[in-house]
């Protein structure tokens, strides 16, 4: 579903991704871990065309992202992304946040979009917040709305960039629970996270990135209990 070959990314003089190759299968749940500044966000952003590709190839859901001719907006309709900050539209109710893209981008009938939105709000446990303003919700609730909003486009892949890092600790669990449910339902997911317990429990594969390269990858069992690369071991000893 995702094929990345020899991906390099430069920002001016700085060489941030230095030859990343990685294939991700349908329904796979991949957690990306690594130190701050190692290129995790850039890697994820390259997967939905938020960053241009300096060198190499990135194919996501059949779209060649490295090719300037590719219709990136079309690609993004099938790839949901959730960021650290919730990015809800502040001037729209929760319901309108969910119906906007399906109605405006997909031409879905409003009644249909409302029914879909209500289903998704129920799924993330927030149907009672249907008519609330984003600012009246806790960070964890906003993040669950952001996930529901991404799901409203019926994506084949969901990308998460530290979705719980900005949350108060007591709000993290509900968001992780929603992500866990998605994983169980077979959503293809790439998740940058510092939640090692979650990665251990939910990931099919863990990728450790440091200095713009994949230093090590494997099933969580292996990465967390018997890392082969001393860099992985050193990183884990700081965060576990
Ligand atoms: P991580 O998510 O692992 O913390 P990032 O991918 O955000 O790392 O950043 C990797 C490196 O790329 C950092 O040194 C960061 O400063 C740099 N970087 C990221 N985005 C930009 C940008 N738009 N312009 C210049 N440098 C950037
Ligand atoms: Mg980041």
From TrEMBL:
<dbReference type="InterPro" id="IPR030679">
    <property type="entry name" value="ABC_ATPase_HisP-typ"/>
</dbReference>
<protein>
    <submittedName>
        <fullName>Amino acid ABC transporter ATP-binding protein, PAAT family</fullName>
    </submittedName>
</protein>
<dbReference type="GO" id="GO:0005886">
    <property type="term" value="C:plasma membrane"/>
</dbReference>
<keyword id="KW-0472">Membrane</keyword>
<dbReference type="GO" id="GO:0015424">
    <property type="term" value="F:ABC-type amino acid transporter activity"/>
</dbReference>
<keyword id="KW-1003">Cell membrane</keyword>
<dbReference type="InterPro" id="IPR027417">
    <property type="entry name" value="P-loop_NTPase"/>
</dbReference>
<dbReference type="GO" id="GO:0005524">
    <property type="term" value="F:ATP binding"/>
</dbReference>
<dbReference type="InterPro" id="IPR003593">
    <property type="entry name" value="AAA+_ATPase"/>
</dbReference>
<comment type="similarity">
    <text>Belongs to the ABC transporter superfamily.</text>
</comment>
<dbReference type="InterPro" id="IPR050086">
    <property type="entry name" value="MetN_ABC_transporter-like"/>
</dbReference>
<dbReference type="GO" id="GO:0016887">
    <property type="term" value="F:ATP hydrolysis activity"/>
</dbReference>
<keyword id="KW-0029">Amino-acid transport</keyword>
<keyword id="KW-0547">Nucleotide-binding</keyword>
<feature type="domain" description="ABC transporter">
    <location>
        <begin position="2"/>
        <end position="236"/>
    </location>
</feature>
<dbReference type="InterPro" id="IPR017871">
    <property type="entry name" value="ABC_transporter-like_CS"/>
</dbReference>
<keyword id="KW-0067">ATP-binding</keyword>
<dbReference type="Pfam" id="PF00005">
    <property type="entry name" value="ABC_tran"/>
</dbReference>
<keyword id="KW-0813">Transport</keyword>
<dbReference type="InterPro" id="IPR003439">
    <property type="entry name" value="ABC_transporter-like_ATP-bd"/>
</dbReference>
């Amino acid at each position: 579903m995702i094929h990345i070959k020899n991906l390099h990314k430069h920002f001016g003089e700085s060489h941030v991704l230095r030859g990343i190759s990685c294939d991700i299968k349908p329904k796979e749940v991949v957690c990306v871990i690594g130190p701050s500044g190692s290129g995790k966000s850039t890697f994820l952003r390259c997967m939905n065309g938020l960053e241009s590709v300096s060198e190499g190839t990135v194919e996501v859901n059949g779209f060649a992202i490295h090719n300037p001719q590719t219709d990136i907006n079309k690609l993004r309709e099938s790839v949901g992304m959730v960021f650290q900050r919730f990015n809800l539209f502040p001037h729209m109710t929760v319901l309108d946040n969910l119906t906007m893209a399906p109605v405006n981008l997909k031409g879905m009938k409003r009644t249909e979009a409302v029914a879909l939105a209500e289903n998704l709000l129920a799924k993330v446990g927030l149907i009672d917040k249907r008519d609330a303003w984003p600012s009246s919700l806790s960070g964890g609730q906003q993040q669950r709305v952001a996930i529901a909003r991404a799901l409203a486009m019926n994506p084949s892949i969901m990308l998460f960039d530290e979705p719980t890092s900005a949350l108060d600790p007591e709000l993290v669990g509900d968001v992780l629970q929603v992500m866990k449910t998605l994983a169980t339902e077979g959503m293809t997911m790439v998740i940058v996270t510092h939640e090692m317990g979650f990665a251990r429990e939910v990931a099919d594969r863990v990728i450790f990135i440091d200095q713009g390269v994949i230093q090590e990858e494997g099933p969580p069992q292996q990465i967390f209990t018997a890392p082969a690369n001393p860099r992985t071991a050193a990183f884990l000893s700081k965060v576990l």
